[in-house]
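Box 3.1 A note on notation
Throughout this textbook, protein chains are presented in two layers. The first layer is the amino acid sequence; the second is a token string describing backbone geometry. Keep the layers aligned when reading.
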Amino acid sequence: MDLVWDGIAQAFWLLVRGDRETYQVILRSTQVSGMATVLSVLVGVPLGTLLGLSRFPGRNVLIALVNMGMGLPPVVVGLLVVITLWRSGPLGGLHMLYTPQAMIAAQFVLAFPLVTAFTLASVQQLNPKLRTQILALGASRWQMLLLLLREARLPLLAAVMAGFGAVISEVGASLMVGGNIRGLTNVLTTDIVSATGRGDFARAIALGIILLALVYAASLAITTIQQRTRPS
């Protein structure tokens, strides 16, 4: 129990004293996971919308792949990205391995299926007659898509939170493709693993508390937006 209280006290002092290394790790964690989430939204929302509104051969196969992607083990994703970015790999010439960019790529692979699946479910739950009504009012197809996404905005915000929550808290892929290099690729989760391995449980608990606070802050922000935009 003393370890827990020591961790809470250390988390407090790390933040209050403005520990530079800790704040850099927090910023790096937010930037890497934030960018991965943004990319997953930019790709996943259009794809989820397409799968939800269209009917074409092979659609069920794609949906099954998306659903399977929701359960991808982070270590497997990390392995695939490492192989891809390795010196002799297909993208080895980019020299991205053990960089924040490689971590963003791995986290994107993890978040993308979640955002796509949530978007698909959000679009499919809309009344099918809504599309016909919007088009009957003279809207173009692009206007119809925007209006449908606006109608499904609450579950779409949940998709964003699901994607961010999945990547900000994962450790396997980030550790494999980033290498936990101090000052370059170490993030909160990999630092927690490192501190635990050294037996520095107080710091590990402190970083864990900071990570939980970061996730809660993001959740609170999205929840606030959801409640403000909730249909009356």
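Residues 52 and 124 are 5 Å apart (CA to CA). Residues 2-228 form a domain with the MetI-like fold fold (CATH 1.10.3720.10).
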